[in-house]
């Protein structure tokens, strides 16, 4: 028996090969969880798993933009653990673009990874999470709460993720499962590394929602995700909790 607030909880975390997903995996491991980690980036996955040692039971390199992999991922996690207590939908992609430049392919891929994959993973995981009185944490964004220019596909998908969280929370209100979202503000992670801001973008406009405070540390978000996923969060259901330094306050 491992100690901690997530002692021996069995968790499936997507996008765990870098940034916030890696931070969530680290905090979950410290709190005693057993982990199956998913990412399309095999190198990142291997590095994170190497750091976390025997807390990581299995890694899965998969591209979540393909809906057909979602059920296989859940079945692989359940086969590894013999059940499932926690699903963290963290993987996402982001492009900055003026809306006329958003191609149908960019739109479809963003919605596939950021919105459809979380739903397909939840749908496959539901029977196992219900059996374990488990829970889901969906990683949303401050961009889902306030309108943010040049991220329409990303922010629309994230807003859908928050509403999906609330709809499922109501559908399962009388059953032993909790479904929540956590909405971070800007963090310095790989999602921003290759981002190019369009030349025609209005930077003064973007500064309005860039935050009055420093960027959020992924560890701070991971600590809240671990709280919500643990028995300490037992009254939290259908919520979207912001960790954004106040950027959505007004
Ligand atoms: N960084 C920020 O400023 C910020 C702000 C708000 C919300 N978020 C959210 O935090 C979460 C984590 O992002 P991050 O900032 O750590 O970025 P990140 O790029 O470091 O991590 C995202 C991970 O998801 C993986 N991924 C992306 N597409 C995938 C796919 N198709 N299949 C499998 N894996 C895939 C990437 O390989 C990467 O490891 C995301 O949901 C993001 O929307 C980030």
TrEMBL record:
<dbReference type="InterPro" id="IPR036291">
    <property type="entry name" value="NAD(P)-bd_dom_sf"/>
</dbReference>
<dbReference type="InterPro" id="IPR002347">
    <property type="entry name" value="SDR_fam"/>
</dbReference>
<dbReference type="InterPro" id="IPR020904">
    <property type="entry name" value="Sc_DH/Rdtase_CS"/>
</dbReference>
<dbReference type="Pfam" id="PF13561">
    <property type="entry name" value="adh_short_C2"/>
</dbReference>
<protein>
    <submittedName>
        <fullName>SDR family oxidoreductase</fullName>
        <ecNumber>1.-.-.-</ecNumber>
    </submittedName>
</protein>
<dbReference type="GO" id="GO:0016491">
    <property type="term" value="F:oxidoreductase activity"/>
</dbReference>
<keyword id="KW-0560">Oxidoreductase</keyword>
